[in-house]
Write a structure and sequence with these properties.
This protein is mainly beta and 748 residues long. It has four domains: 39-186, Neuraminidase (6 Propeller); 189-338, Dipeptidylpeptidase IV, N-terminal domain (Methanol Dehydrogenase, Chain A), CATH 2.140.10; 339-480, TolB, C-terminal domain (Neuraminidase, 6 Propeller), CATH 2.120.10.30; 490-741, Rossmann fold, CATH 3.40.50.1820. The chain is 14% helix and 36% strand. It has an eight-stranded mixed beta sheet with strand order 39-40-42-41-43-44-45-46, sandwiched between helices. Strands 1, 2, 3, 4 and 5 form a five-stranded mixed beta sheet that branches. Strands 14, 15, 16, 19 and 20 form a five-stranded antiparallel beta sheet that branches. Strand 35 (433-438) and strand 36 (444-451) form a beta hairpin. The radius of gyration is 26 Å and the shape is globular.
Length: 748
């Protein structure tokens, strides 16, 4: 369950704050869900060419924010230019295959056009899948070559490291295309039915942040590729209901406690056409977590996670024979998290991170798997390994930290040393939220920055933090699409609460005309589950301003279990999902009620996915005392959800029957404190519709009134401007009736 953020907007209804004003500075839902986007020209998927001389990025079209084009900009002099025009190459985009739809759903890709791309390691080409076919842009001259034009979708396309081949998956088999001759050569031929090659299985895509199922060696000699057999996975019949009818999908869905797909790993010798099986051990009930190559291509590193996720082994594999041995192991009494922090070095050593101190830190290992020393240390977690300059020994990482102590509201890029224990040095400025993408040599990076008054902007920087040039300055000037609404941007403050020895962070946004002598209704936005956390000093989504324009205070609290914090903070919900998180939200509600300007009879909560699970439990918790709640696509019984996510936190239904029972909201519906609005996509293949229908059935059986909005054809998120506008009009109507201007208490 990846985080689904509240990125839509609130509704225009008769009698609302929107309908009562003609002030052009008042932001309306119609403007939020129209073109161009209010965030301005935001660069997405920014990456540097391997030589650091060109920057590629995706940009939404001004005439349609749902379609992305591929752009590039020189790192020196020169203006950005459009490299691939999606509409020009494919003017009439057809229907994607079910496999590609599912893959994009797992990757949370909602736009069309050029939604992903990749460089070859020489920096000569950019490969861009586009509407099911593959296009290759040549850096020299900018010519774009169409490589495939078939009825089937080519998915997960890659340029080989030296740029001699393009590989992709078609009809469940891996295919390699030689660029010089244009000849295709199938690597596998028996992919069909329940057997799939070179594609990450459902659980890896959805829960393990692994979106690929094959990996080229740096010298192009080998391809490591997985084989997935889904015959062991239960069939969960799922109604896929659209506006034109319904079909029954026999979905292979591995529910908690039930069998997973069997995943094997092989290594293909590309030139010889020979394939060997990698020894992953006798136990097949494991997770293929990560796969990496050594820099010389002589060693394959595989991370193997146990089914209970309490053990993560690092295997060293001989790609010629498939023989393996465990060289390092991480263990935990709760769970071991997966990361992308593994990095093989040229001299055979490698970097890997773990939480052995209670905080995630980076460590240097010898080639034999022996831990040599810590690269980072202190009371803060590293968020990710961003780059290494092996020539200078510099290691770059992101963290929410100041002076060696956790600072969860902000994030910066830091520099440490590969060769000595040193205090990290901040490369970027403090006070906002930075992410960074470094070039392969660790000499430059693309920095993405935002803060409460700065919309997302991207720039090119040298490794020491010196600014080189803008990629997308996105200046909030008179030409910016958000500029007409700046004067009514909500005032946001931040604070902390203490819970069970842990510090919780919160943010509150107030209407621009806030008067502390008056009282206001509150909307508590919540996600609540394991994620990156929602409270940060960053640019607010336009939805927040729509809520404040409607007269609401908007409050968000990151409870225990949410965000990349200490191991103890995250593991507070182990075996008890829905309990410590709700206790912390009660703490937040009590804090709100202590404020003289909060109307404690008009507090609502809203959330989607895990946030939907949270709002249902908040509405049935008497201590919350909510007037109403909006629950979108909620899990209502964790035994209906998938293995890797659910078992990580809750173990299996058999081993933790009490924990599963306590988290089942159906048994708590008699305790509803207010009105419920329930929403769900009718084609959701992640949190399947059964989660909602069991609540619908129970409420009807109890004769309890509630509001319901179902979305035909929509999966785990509501897509498209028109539907999101309707969604948030529904939100506003509901909030206005329950805590807003039409709420009974508002008339007292």
């Amino acid at each position: 369950m990846r985080t689904v953020l509240l990125v839509s907007a609130l509704a225009l209804t008769a009698g609302s704050a929107f309908a009562q004003t003609s002030n052009p500075a008042v932001l309306t839902p119609e403007r939020v869900f129209s073109n161009p986007g209010l965030n301005g020209p935001v660069a997405q998927g920014v990456s540097l060419s391997p030589d650091g001389e060109l920057v590629a990025f995706l940009r939404a079209r001004e005439d349609d924010v749902s379609v992305l084009d591929l752009w590039a900009a020189p790192t020196g002099a020169g203006e950005p230019f459009k490299l691939i025009d999606a509409r020009a190459l494919v003017p009439d985009a057809g229907e994607l295959s079910e496999a590609e739809k599912a893959r994009r759903e797992r990757m949370r890709i909602s736009q069309r056009g050029v939604v992903e791309y990749s460089w070859d390691e020489q920096g000569r080409y950019i490969l861009a899948p586009l509407e099911g076919d593959i296009f290759l842009a040549s850096r020299e001259g900018g010519a774009v070559r169409r490589l495939t034009e078939t009825a089937a979708d080519e998915i997960d396309a890659k340029v080989s490291p030296k740029g001699n081949f393009v590989s992709f998956v078609r009809d469940q088999d891996l295919v390699v295309l030689e660029l010089a001759s244009g000849q295709e050569r199938p690597v596998t031929t028996d992919g069909d039915g329940l057997i799939t090659w070179a594609t990450a299985e459902f659980i890896a895509q959805e829960e393990m942040d692994r979106d690929t199922g094959y990996w080229w060696s740096p010298d192009e000699r080998f391809i490591a590729l997985q084989r997935t057999d889904e015959s062991t996975v239960d069939i969960v019949p799922r109604l896929d209901i659209s506006g034109s009818g319904a079909t029954v999908v026999a979905q292979r869905y591995p529910r908690a406690g039930r069998p997973n797909a069997v995943v094997e790993l092989y290594v293909q010798d590309v030139a010889a056409g020979r394939r060997v099986k990698v020894d992953l051990g006798a136990n097949t009930d494991i997770y293929l977590a990560r796969v990496n190559w050594s820099t010389d291509g002589e060693t394959l590193y595989v991370q193997r996670q146990s089914r209970d996720q309490k053990t993560l082994d690092l295997l060293r594999v001989d790609p010629s024979t498939g023989a393996s041995r465990v060289i390092a192991t991480q263990t935990s009494d709760a769970w071991v998290e997966l990361t992308d922090d593994f990095k093989a070095l040229r001299d055979g050593r490698f970097i890997w991170s773990d939480e052995s101190t209670g905080w995630r830190h980076l460590y240097l290992y010898g080639a034999d798997g022996r831990k040599i020393r810590a690269i980072t240390r202190g009371d803060y977690p590293t968020k990710g390994l961003n780059g290494i300059n092996e020539a200078t020994g510099e290691v770059f990482f992101t963290a929410s930290m100041r002076d060696g102590v956790e600072a969860p509201l902000e994030q910066q890029l830091f520099r440490a040393s590969l060769n000595a224990v040193v205090e990290p040095v901040a490369v970027t400025s403090a006070g906002g939220w930075w992410s960074a993408s470094m070039n392969r040599t660790g000499t430059a990076f693309v920095g993405n920055y935002t803060d409460p008054v700065t919309p997302p902007q991207s720039g090119l920087y040298q490794a020491d933090g010196r600014f080189v040039r803008w990629i997308e300055e996105n200046a909030l000037d008179a030409d910016h699409p958000f500029h007409p609404y700046v004067s009514r941007r909500p005032v946001t403050e931040y604070g902390t609460l203490e819970s069970q020895g842990e510090t919780l962070v919160w943010q509150m946004s107030r209407p621009v005309d806030f008067d502390p002598a008056k009282t206001y209704p509150v909307v508590m936005q919540v996600y609540g589950g394991p994620s990156g956390g929602g409270v940060r000093r960053g640019w607010l989504p336009a939805t927040t301003q729509l809520l404040t324009e409607a007269g609401y205070l908007v409050f968000r609290l990151d409870n225990r279990g949410e965000g990349y914090r200490s191991a103890a903070f995250k593991q507070a919900l182990h075996l008890t999902m829905g309990q410590p998180e709700i206790a912390d939200q009660v703490l937040g509600a009590n804090y709100l009620r202590s404020l003289p300007y909060v109307d404690d009879s008009r507090i609502a909560a809203m959330g989607w996915s895990y946030g939907g699970f949270m709002t249902l439990h908040m509405l049935t918790e008497p201590q919350m005392g909510l007037t109403s709640a909006i629950s979108g696509a909620p899990v209502t019984d964790w035994s209906l959800y998938d293995t890797h996510y659910t078992e990580r936190f809750m173990s299996t239904p058999e081993a933790n029957a009490a924990g599963y029972a306590a988290s089942d909201v159906v048994d708590q519906l008699d305790d509803l404190t207010g009105r419920l609005l329930l929403l769900h996509g009718m084609a959701d293949d992640n949190v399947i519709l059964e989660n909602a229908t069991r609540v619908i059935d129970a409420l009807q059986a109890k004769s309890i009134p509630f509001d319901l909005m179902l979305y035909p054809g929509q999966r785990h998120g509501v897509r498209g401007n028109e539907r999101q506008l309707q969604q948030w009009r529904t939100y506003l109507d509901f909030l206005d009736r329950t805590i807003g201007s039409r709420a009974p208490s508002a008339q007292d």
